[in-house]
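Incident log, structure service

09:12 report received: a user says their structure output differs between two submissions of the same chain.
09:20 pulled the input from the user's history:
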Amino acid sequence: MIGAILLALAPIALLIALGHLMHRRRFLPDSFWPQAERLCYYVLLPALFIHALAMADLRGVPVASLAVTLMVPIIVVSGLLVLAKRWLGYSDAAFTSVFQGGIRFNNYVGLSAAVSLLGAPALSMAAVANAAIVPTVNLLCVLIFARWGVAQPTLRGVLRGLALNPLLMSCLIGILLQASGLGLPPGIDSFMKALGQASLPLGLLCVGAALDWGALGRGLRPALAASFAKFVLMPLVTFLMLKAVGLGGQAAFIAILFHALPTASSSYVMARQLGGDAPLMAGICALQTVLAALTVPIALLLLAPAL
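09:34 re-ran on a clean worker, output below:
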């Protein structure tokens, strides 16, 4: 099983490494990468979510159990981080970055890993996982910024930010198309599928390009605290939740996988826009992306077989 997991995750690590190498060698101009990430975030990844949710065959997929199992650990770990804020002793801006690092996840790595490990049918469960996690994480992060961010948004700003979140909206559209039974027309189906397939390799290249080794030296202690919450607390709480609801099989594997992922590079953008500690957030992203090469296989090997 160790060999199968490492072999399945190898293409993901290689794509991230290639993106980092291309960025360091200036194979493409620096201006390319922010635009590529914008394309993935606003067009390609939403297309993947819409297609996967609208066209998924959810027969036999424990949608409700999987969604609850994924949402509860996020809420629990969020509560633990808030309770630990005074003990941690970080500034308000730094805490918002630790919080994001503790609960956010990288969509590109998760979707790619799910398909690599379990095959194309896993995309349906991965889409359900995204539909459960994306709204929960974004709502909690915006609320944390409203309380402790420097640029504290108003309630109207919070609601507007959620309404304009492309990942949240694409999940909602996909769920509505699935629930209505309409799906996607044949021509639109192929169009959305082609767009979605482009999101994963390009997104992983962008993850690699965003790695900032210099940021690792700035605020190592809070970065390690965020990583402890993400790579230790989140998978353990997920494991306990899976045991409590009796969920097993591929759905349980997906739950462990998604809650063992490194934080998303988009968290840096949120930190910059809403008054968090953006340099610290960049360091957390870089550290967790590197650590995930070890922590994701370990979490899957230790926790998934015990379910």
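09:41 both user submissions now match this output. Likely a transient worker issue. Closing.
09:42 reviewer note: The mean pLDDT is 88. The chain has one domain: 2-306.
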